[in-house]
Amino acid sequence: MNIITLVGARPQFIKAAPLSQAIRAAGHREFILHTGQHYDYGMSQVFFEELGIPEANENLDVRSGGHGQQTGNMLIAIEKVLIREKPDLIIVFGDTNSTLAGALAAVKLHIPVAHVEAGLRSYNREMPEEHNRVLTDHCSDFLFCPTLTAVNNLQHEGITRGVRLVGDPMYDAVLMFAEKARQHSTILRDLELQQNGYLLATIHRAYNTDEPEVLGKILAALQACGEMVILPMHPRTRQKIRDFDLLDLDAPSAQLHIIEPVSYLDMLMLEQNARMILTDSGGVQKEAFFFAVPCLTLRPETEWVETLEDGWNTIIGLDADKIQRHVHDMICPEHPPRPLFGNGQSAKRIVSFLEN
Q1: Which of 138, 204, 257, 326 is catalytic?
Q2: Strand order of the sheet with strand 163-165?
Q3: Which among 69, 129, 206, 234 is least surrounded, fewest beta carbons within 10 Å?
């Protein structure tokens, strides 16, 4: 097969790593197309280096912009590559603007679309990601679902053809790279952190960062937790803090330790050694679940409802008092998380289904 793998953002690089390995091991040709949606070294290139992903065959370097501008620029550029390369199919991941642009470009050219991480639903139509994933699912020929919940979501929308339950490539990646992280990452030593001696937080969703009052409340709640909070700062969030003049990012804080975006291996180390994780990221919610680290989701909902089972993840929204209360009162579940995201072989299963 002649396959185009489309990536553009941090979570997609992680999912692409095990799948790219499986594609090449099976003897298929893979053309990696990078949209450039994430372009900082710490959000892009370092993931290719650490995860052993082959260098992108082409980088469209679309970069930032409004949703319409960014998606439109990607659509135009991706279409040109598809016409030139004539792939047998295109693989898209998740729910970003890159995902939607790739699916739309391919379906217009009658090129089969394989959507990895199909069927997720938050049922929050204020999220741009929700529209991206729904539209992509309805464009796709092959829908690779990470969980049974995702399969059922598609069935409720009348989508049954091409649907396959395969597990989650992010779980594949954690199994592949967690030990490497323990051997090679120096992040705990560099930041002088002890196991279970800090909280880890991530903030990047538009509805958490675009309004100064909302972002200010989240930052204030993190500062009031009474424990060291490590906050790897997304470039977009950093810019919003500066625009709204919410924090002096150059002044050190005893409670809120803001750092640059970290590599994948460093993030795995921070996650598995944290006492608790606070996040609005779907991927980080899952990784917390994989590592059996309690998680507080700074959103009113989650598409990863499986992580809520047995109390490993709790939705707390944006209530500052609730954040502080759960940080201090949340009890770690007695039993480890159940294996709800496959057995670490999802990439091989995807390739097998495509071959057949």
Answers
A1: 204
A2: 58-59, 29-34, 2-7, 89-93, 113-116, 142-145, 163-165
A3: 69
Given a cut of 90, whether residue 249 has pLDDT beyond it is no
Instruction: Select from 343, 221, 345 the least CA-distant residue to 280.
Output: 221
pTM of the prediction? 0.92
3-state DSSP assignment of residue 318: coil
Is 204 considered catalytic here?
yes
Tokens standing for 272?
Answer: 């598995």
Q: Which residues pair with 256 in a beta bridge?
A: 229
Cα distances (Å, whole numbers) of residue 110 to 106, 113, 146 = 6, 9, 26
Rounded to 10 deg, the angle between the 212-223 and 235-244 helix axes is 100
pLDDT digits (tens, 9 = 90+) for 230-239: 999 988 898 9
Q: CA-to-CA distance for 223 and 221, rounded, in angstroms? A: 5
- What pLDDT sits at residue 40? 61
Structural contact between residues 218 and 203, judged by C-beta atoms closer than 8 angstroms:
yes
Q: 207 is written with which tokens?
A: 């509805």
**What CATH number is given for 2-168+342-355 in this structure?**
3.40.50.2000
Please say whether the dihedral angle defined by the alpha carbons of residues 327, 330, 336 and 342, taken in this order, is positive or negative.
negative
pLDDT digits (tens, 9 = 90+) for 103-139: 999 999 999 999 999 999 999 988 889 999 999 999 9
Domains 2-168+342-355 and 177-329 share a fold: yes
Distance between CA atoms of residues 24 and 18, nearest Å: 10
Q: How many CB atoms neighbour CB 157 within 10 A?
A: 12
Looking at domain 177-329, its CATH superfamily turns out to be: Glycogen Phosphorylase B; (3.40.50.2000)
Note the pLDDT tens digit of each residue in 16-62: 999 999 999 999 999 999 998 766 655 567 888 899 899 999 999 88
